[in-house]
Amino acid sequence: MLNINAKEKDESHVIPTVTPKRPAGQTDVLQLTCPPIPTVRVAFIGLGMRGPGAVERMTYIDGVKIVALCDVEQKNTEKVNAMLEKRGVSKAQEFYGDTSVWRKVTALPDVDLIYIATDWKHHAKIALQAMRDGKHVAIEVPSAMNMDEIWNLINTAEKTRKHCIPLENCCYDFFELTTLNMVQQGVLGEVIHGEGAYIHGLQPYWNQYWDDWRMKYNEEHRGDLYPTHGLGPVCQAMNIHRGDKMNYLVSVDTKAVGNPAFLKENRGKEVKNFRNGDHTCTLIGTEKGNSILIEHNVTSPRPYDRMYQLTGTKGFANKYPTPGYALESSMLQSDSKDFENLNAHSFVTDEVRKALMEKYKHPIVKDIEEKAKQVGGHGGMDFVMDYRLIYCLQKGLPMDMDVYDLAEWSCLVPLSEISLNNNSAPVEIPDFTRGAWNKLNGLKLAE
Ligand SMILES: NC(=O)c1ccc[n+]([C@@H]2O[C@H](COP(=O)([O-])OP(=O)(O)OC[C@H]3O[C@@H](n4cnc5c(N)ncnc54)[C@H](O)[C@@H]3O)[C@@H](O)[C@H]2O)c1
After folding, report:
1. H or E segment at 190?
2. What is the pLDDT of residues 135-178, one digit of tens each?
3. CATH superfamily, with its number, for domain 40-167
4. Which of 140, 208, 226 to mutate to test the pocket of ligand 1 (most atoms within 8 A of CB)?
5. What are the boundaries of each domain within the chain?
6. For the chain, how far is it from start to end, CA to CA, in angstroms?
7. How many angstroms separate the CA atoms of 108 and 228, rounded?
């Protein structure tokens, strides 16, 4: 008889994944610190739509030297160097010509950090060589596309003791950072469920990508191909690999309609078996009995949406379509003079939300919020991300995000595809820390 109350784990239906044994003599890189680098010398690889903005943002950060610019296309390196000149910054050495020119850049002796903003297929290859060449690496998202790449990045980071981080800017948006601070101060109670998404029609961009890499990837792969914007901030709030861990996922997708129609209308191309469904949902179960829902849709006529919802035992946070908090009144008793009659059945008023956002502003943005909003990059969050990357390197502090975050957030790409190819069967999510997921007691951003 089926015991509907059964809570015991039955893992017999979960598709196992392989966790390679940690090579002898190697240890984890949790809270990795490296010697401080007062002036961080940066080389950028990949200067298409995303990369140039990163170079420009870096010109607003003290103690950064832009040493090299690399792209397949000469016009891209030239354009960015012209921007540097306009900004009154020394021009950088240019590397261009083909898809292996980056090897000269990772080998440069006078570089501390390689910042990678190429198409997805080159991310891991470049990052691996960069670490072997003694450089820290920051990689655009998703930072790795399959399990081999992910494990190679982990092993290489552990072996070389270099930072290898995902450039997950959405962890630095102001609502997410404030909410993280509220979570860490117990205002929402325990977060038992999180939701995140990337819902963004890419029609204006499809024809702009170098070599059509993004549409090609969507054409060839089912699954959530862009999970990190949704997953990153949720995992941070739920202390993934800092007290909890993701155990398995299950994905369901729709048929593919929008992208094949785009290809037909815009390029006269008929694709019979377009792999990526218009909408993909992935549910994740965690070790501590909590859940996460992540969605992906880059084609339907919908407003931009990253969802970002946290359900706590004492309150609720929601970013899209309008930011809001709902809280049990007991959570803010000490503030009862300031915050009216709270009741978790409805959102707090705009006034209370603004007061909460001010009160719980994350300490890491207090000094730089104004500058971040001026410099910009998705409203300022991109600047906060770059600033934090440089700040931690300059001070020799642990990074806000580590190679295990990179692994956890990127692994949805290959693992959701395995689930979909197996009729939505559950797929095991490895413990990328190989036994250390409970070693840290929550996420702490270094100050
Ligand atoms: N975090 C965000 O908000 C955000 C936003 C946009 C894009 N992205 C990510 O940024 C990355 C780049 O996206 P994009 O929109 O700029 O794409 P893009 O096609 O406009 O640019 C990619 C660039 O990389 C260059 N390139 C490709 N292979 C290379 C190689 N081997 N060596 C040197 N240069 C190479 C291409 O010439 C091109 O200029 C992707 O990973 C994407 O997912 C992130």
Report:
1. none
2. 999 999 999 999 999 999 999 999 999 999 999 999 999 999 99
3. NAD(P)-binding Rossmann-like Domain (3.40.50.720)
4. 140
5. 40-167, 171-364+403-428
6. 55
7. 30
CATH topology of domain 171-364+403-428: Dihydrodipicolinate Reductase; domain 2 (3.30.360)
pLDDT digits 0-9 by tens, 66-123: 999 999 999 999 999 999 999 999 999 999 999 999 999 999 999 999 999 999 999 9
Which structure tokens are listed for 132? 């072997």
- Is the CB of 119 inside a 6 Å radius of any atom of ligand 1? yes
Cβ count near 2 (within 10 Å): 5
209 Cβ inside 6 Å of ligand 1: yes
Three-state SS for 332?
helix
The band of 35, judged by pLDDT with boundaries at 50, 70 and 90, is: very high
Instruction: Evaluate the CA torsion angle 102, 43, 164, 145 in order and state its sign.
Output: negative
Given the structure tokens 């930011």, which residue do they identify? 323
- Using alpha carbons, select from 196, 176, 180 the residue that is nearest to residue 188: 180
Compute the average pLDDT of residues 302-313. Answer: 98
| Atom 39, ligand 1: residue with shortest CA distance | 48
Query: 248 CB less than 6 Å from ligand 1?
Result: no
Residue 417 has pLDDT above 60, yes or no: yes
- CB-hemisphere CA count at 13 Å for 36? 5
Above 70 in pLDDT, residue 51? yes
Pocket test for ligand 1, best of 95, 100, 119 (most atoms within 8 A of CB): 119
Q: What is the pLDDT of residue 369?
A: 94
